[in-house]
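tool_call: predict_structure(chain=1)
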Amino acid sequence: MQDRHAKLERVEQTTENPVQKPVIETETSSGLDERVLLAWRSPERLFKARTKEFYSTIIVLAVLMSVIMFFIEGIMPVFVIWAFVFVIYATTKTAPTEADHELTSWGIRTGGKLYRFNQMVLFWLEEKWERSILRIILPSFPGQLILIVNKTDEEKIKKVLADNQVTMQKPEPSSTDKAVKWLSEKIPLE
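tool_result:
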């Protein structure tokens, strides 16, 4: 009876984990541990409180564009225009939440995802609405990583990115960038 009981225990032990997973050597097991060089909390996106004039201007422009597009193309462009108006309203009325960002020895970790240094093409720092913004060009989705940083950490960020062969260079504005800038100067929404 004890022999049978011992055999059952051995069978149970082998059936608990029937497939042995191969040991894969990772960077952490080879001694190249990820170290946090700088960590900070900041809003997920830029935010500026808007006035009633801003919303009324957006609605007037949307109505005018809707009328024009309805006569040119029909109802579908009107739905797109009003969906765009809704997105503008939702993002300007809802304050962003705080996010954790880490500059590590492997790259930048934000939103639960690691963007490695070898994936980064260009970076630059700029000011907008009295906040420092770090912009990083990526070759794949999302295309551009935009992080709000503390002004006191700018030099450390520049040094770490430059030491990891990420080029600091602001790209020339495209024709779309120039058109948007010109339009925002000519038709202020506030």
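agent: The first strand starts at residue 36 and ends at 43. Proceeding to next step.
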